[in-house]
Amino acid sequence: MKKQLTIAIASVAMLASLLTACGGNNDNNKAAESAGTTTNTGSAPASGAASAKPLKVSVMTQQTAPMPPAADNEIEKLIEKATNTELDVQWIPQNTYGDKLNITLAAGDLPDLIFINDPFSSVFRGLVDQGAFWDLSPYYKDYPNLTSGISETAWELTKQADGGNYGIPRPRPSEGAAFLNIRKDWLDEVGLAVPTTTDELYAALKAIKDKKGITPFPAGVDASGLNLGYLATIESAFTSATWSPSYGGWKLADGKLTNTAFLPEERSAIEYLKKLFDEKLISEDFASIKTDAVNNLFKADKSALIVEKAGNMRNYFDEIVKLDTDFKETDFYPMTTLNGFSPRDPGFNGLISIPKSVSEEKMKGILKMVDTWMNDDVFQYQQWGIEGVHYTVQDGKKVLDTEKANQDGISNYNQIVYVSDPYASSSKDFFEPDTQTLYKQIQDEREKAGSVPDYTVGLNSPTANQNMTEINKSMTDLKIKIILGSAPITAWDDYVNKLKSDATMTKITEELNDAYQKRTGAN
Amino acid sequence: MKLSTGDRVFNWINIVLLGIVALITFFPFYYVIVVSFTDPTEYLRKALIVFPEKWSLASYEYLLSTPFFVKSLGSSAYLAIVGTLCSLAISSSLAYCLSRRRMRGRKAIMLFVLVTILFSPGIIPNYMLIRELHLINSYWAIIMPALSSGWNVLLLKGFFDSLPTELEEAAAIDGCNDISIWLRIILPLSLPALAAFGLFFAVGYWNTFFNAMLYLTDSSKWPVQVILQNILINASTGDLLSTAYTEKPPTETLKMAAVIIATVPILLVYPFLQKHFAKGALVGSVKG
Amino acid sequence: MSPEPMDAYTAPVQPRPAPDQSSRPNRRLRSDLKRDRWLYLLALPGILFFIVFKYFPMYGLVIAFENYSPFKGIIRSEWVGFAHFERFFSNPDFLLLLRNTMAINFMKLFLFFPLPILLAILLNELRSDKYKKLIQTVVYLPHFLSWVLICGLTYLLFATGDGFVNKVLAELGADKWVVLTNPKLFWIMITSQSIWKEAGWGTIIFLAAIAGVNTQLYEAATIDGAGRLRRMWHVTLPAIRTVIVILLILRIGEIMDVGFEQVFLMSNGAVSEVADVFDTYVYRVGVQQGQFSFTAAVGLFKSIVGLTLVLLSNWLAKRFGEEGVY
C-alpha cells in the first residue's frame, strides 16, 4: 500500500508539470489584458480622449439572438472606434447564462464588465457584501447618459442592502408589460366589446368558443411549475398584485405587503379558473402544455387570447394573416386593464457590474464607455447595423434587412448597453401608423389607470430565499389540482389556514415588510 | 443446414417483432425529418404532421448560409476525432492492465476507478482545475476531462476478461513485453469492443454542450451542440429592445432542420463501425 | 432447463491461481513488480488521468459541510458540519422524494434494463445481414434526439385535448385517455419514454459482447442438437454475462439518480406528488438559488448511497460466482 502511495504522489507531481507544459500552448491573454488596464483614461468624463490609447475591456454577457456575433465584426469595430475601446466580448447563450455566471462568480475570474442577470440572487448579494464589486453611486452622476438614459427608479430599485449601486441597471421600458391580447375581429363577430372585467372576459371567451368551436384561451403553466403561467395574469386581475418571479404574489395595501394566498380574491380567482376549465374555455392540457405550443396555437388562428407584449404583435400577425387574409394588425388587440388591473415591469433587466479587481481609473473609463455608447450616433449601430449591409434608406426611412441582422446577431449588443425607448414594449416603427397610435394610447391609458409593479423587487428576505420556492410550488400544485377537479376547493381553505399559522410564512411576511418599510422610509 | 419448423416460426416471429420495434423507434426521427422539410405555416396549421403537403428547403438554406453553424460542425468533428482516439488509448490501456489477474494492486485500482463513477465533485472545482491547467478556451479543456470514465474502464475490462489468454502467453514466450502485446495482439482482437466504445466516446464528444459553453470563451470555437441548444431552447427574455424590428423566435421547422444537420454527421459513423459488431471477429485469429 | 450442458458451451473462464504468498512475500512482490513493469507503465496514463481529473477536484466535496461563499473560497468558508444534511433529511417531503426516486428507478431496472439484452439477442438471431443492419441502424436513432424533442412528441401523441391518440379514440367513440396529468401513469410513462429513446442504443454494448463469442461454440452446440432457444440460452447469454453483471451493478449504483431533464420536462402540477424526485428538488432549491453547499450535500448523500449499493451488489455477485465489477 505504501508503495502505491508513493507512486501516486510522484505521478501527480509528474503529471502536473506535464499538463502545464501542455496548457502553455494555449494563448491566454489575461495577463496582457490586465497589463493594459492601467494605461488608460482616468481623465474627467467629459473629455473626448480620442487621442488616448484604446481602453481594453473584457465583457461577459448573454446572447439572445440564435447566433453570436462574430468576434471583431464590423458593428463591434464601429462601437470600439466610437468609444475608443478594445472590446473582448464573451457571449453566453441565454439559456445557460445563469449557470455560467454562477460558476464564473464562484471561481472568481471576473471580466471587467459582467452582466448580472439577477441582482438579488444570494450569490451576487454575498459577493457584494464581501466587496467584490464597485459601488458606482459616488460616480455615475458624472456621466450624463447614465442619469438621463436610466430612470431614477431603476437606480433606486437595484440598490443593495447597504444602499450602494453595485452595477449599472440595464434600462427597459416599465410600461407595456406582457398582458392579455384578444382577437378583436372575433369579438366583432360575436358583437362584444373588448372586455374590461373578468365577467366580461368570461362572456367573450364563451361566445367565441360557441361561434368558432375552438379553445379560446389555451393558457399553459410556467415551465418552472412555480406559478400558473399565463393564468397568473387572470389571478392578478382578481388580486391586483403582479406576480414576482422570486417571491410570488404580494399585494400592497395600506403600505403593507400581504401574500395573495391570504386574500379572498385569490379563492375567487381559482373558482373562476375552474369554471373556465370546466367549460373548456382554457385548454384541457393547461397543466402540461408548454408556452411555445400555446403561442403557436395563437399563430395558427386557433385561439383568441394570449399573454404577450403588444410590441411582439408582428410575430403573430405575420402567421395569422397567411391563414386569414382579412386579419388586420389592430385585430391583435391589447386589453387596457382587467378589473382595473394591468402589470408594470420594473424598468430594468439586471445589471452590468464592474469587479473590484478593476482599477478605479479603469472603472471610470468603463463608465465613460457606457456613457458614450448610449449616445444616439453610437447606439444606432446595434439598432440598424451598417447602411447597405443591414439596412437601406427608402424614402428617407431606414428599412432593416431583418434576416441579415438576425444572422449577424447585431441585436446582441443590446445585452451590453441599451437605450430605452419608453414605448419599445408596445409599439414598433414598422407597425402601421394606426396600430402605433392605438398601442401607444393603450399603454398611456394603462399608465393613467395605475399599472401595478411587483413591489418585492429589490427586497431581501433570507427566509424567503430559502423557502419561498417550495411554498410557491406546493401552492401552484394545489391550484392546478383544484382547477383540474382532482382536489376540492375546500382543500385551498385548509391550505391557507395552515399557511396562516406557518412560522416560516409569518417570518417571510415580516422580513419583506421590514425591508419594504426600510426602503420607502429612506426615500 | 435444414431448418426445423420451430426455427422457421421463430425466424418469422423475430423478423416481424423487430420490424415493429424499428417502426416505433423510427417514428421520432421520421417526425423530425418531415417537420424540417415542412413549410412553417403548414406546420402551425396541423396538429401532427405525417407527410408534408408543401416541401420547403428554406430552413436548411438559412442554416447552411450561416457561417457560424457550418464552422461549428468542423469544431465538433475535431473534438470527436481527436477526443475519441485519445480516449480509446487511455481507457483501453488501463482496462487491459486491470484485466490481467497477475497485476498486483489491481483490485485497489479498480475500486479507485469505481468510486469516481459515484462521486462527482461538482462543476466549480472542475472549472478551477481547468483554469489552473491554463486550458480555458482550448479544445483540450473539453477533451481532457472526458478522456476516460470509470464506467468505460470497468466495462472495457469486462471485455478484455473474456479474451483467451493462450495467445498472450505465446507472445510472452516470444519475448514481447506487455505494451507490445496490448498493441499487437489484444487491440486487434478487441475490435468489436473498441468499435462500441469508440462510438460511445465519439457520441459523447459530439454531444458536448455544457463544458463547451463553459470553457470555450471564444464563440467561434463552439461546437455545433452549443449553437443547436441555443436555437432549440430560445426562451424569449421578454425583452423587446429594438424599435426597428422584433426578433422572431426560431420556427419549429428551423429547429428540426438544425437537429438534423447537427445529428446526421455523427450518425454516419455508425455504418462504418457496424461491421465490427458482426459475428465471429475472434474466430479467424484464434484459428490462424 | 438442465444445468449440465451449460459448462460445455461457456467460454473458458479460467482463473489463474492466486499468486503464492506463503514464502518471503517482499521478494515475491518485488519480482512480480519487476516482471510486470511494462504493465504498470501501460496503466500509468490512465491512473494519472483519474488522479488529476477525478480525484483532485474531489476537495470540492468539502463545501457540503460549509456555507460555501465563492468570494471566501473553499478554505475560508464557514464550517457548518452536517447542517445541510439535516435540512435535507428534515424536509417534510424527504420520504416522498425518496419514494418517487426509487419507484422510477426500480421500474427502469425491471422493465428497461433487460430489454436491450433481449433486443441484442434477437438481433443476433436475424439471418439476413441486410435486415439486421437496417434494424440496428434504426433502433439506435432516437438516442440522438434530445429529451425536449421526445417530450414534445409525447405531448403531441398523448395530449388530452388534441393529442393524436385521443383524436383516434374520439373517432372510435371511446372515452378520453388522460395520460399527461394522470399520477397513476406517470412512472410507467417515464419508463416507457426511456425505453423508446434508449433501448436500441443500449444494445450496442451487448452486440459487441456477442460479436466476441467464439463461433465454434455455436457449431459445437448445433452438433449436440441444441435448438435455437437453447443456443441463445446456453451460448449467447453466458457469453455476455460478465457485461450484464457489470452493467447491472453500475446501474444499481445510480438508483438515486433520475434523468433530471426528462422528469423535469414531463412533470406538472397535477402529477407532482409522484414526479418530484431528488434531482428536481435540488434543481429548484439548490441549483437555481445558487446554494452550492446544499446542492453538494445532496449530491454527496446520493453518492454514498450509490457506493454502498454497488459494494453490496458486487459482494452478492461474487457470492454467486460472478466476476463482479472489481
UniProtKB/TrEMBL annotation, chain B:
Its main location: membrane. This is Carbohydrate ABC transporter permease. Keywords: Cell membrane, Membrane, Transmembrane, Transmembrane helix, Transport. PANTHER family: ABC TRANSPORTER PERMEASE PROTEIN MG189-RELATED-RELATED, POLYGALACTURONAN_RHAMNOGALACTURONAN TRANSPORT SYSTEM PERMEASE PROTEIN YTCP. It comes from the Bacteria. The chain crosses the membrane at residues 12-33, 77-96, 108-127, 139-160, 181-206, 254-273. It is a multi-pass membrane protein. Residues 73-273 form the ABC transmembrane type-1 domain. GO terms for cellular component: plasma membrane. One of its GO terms (biological process) is transmembrane transport. It is found in: Cell membrane. It holds the Pfam family BPD_transp_1. SUPFAM superfamilies: MetI-like. Belongs to the binding-protein-dependent transport system permease family. InterPro entries: MetI-like, MetI-like_sf.
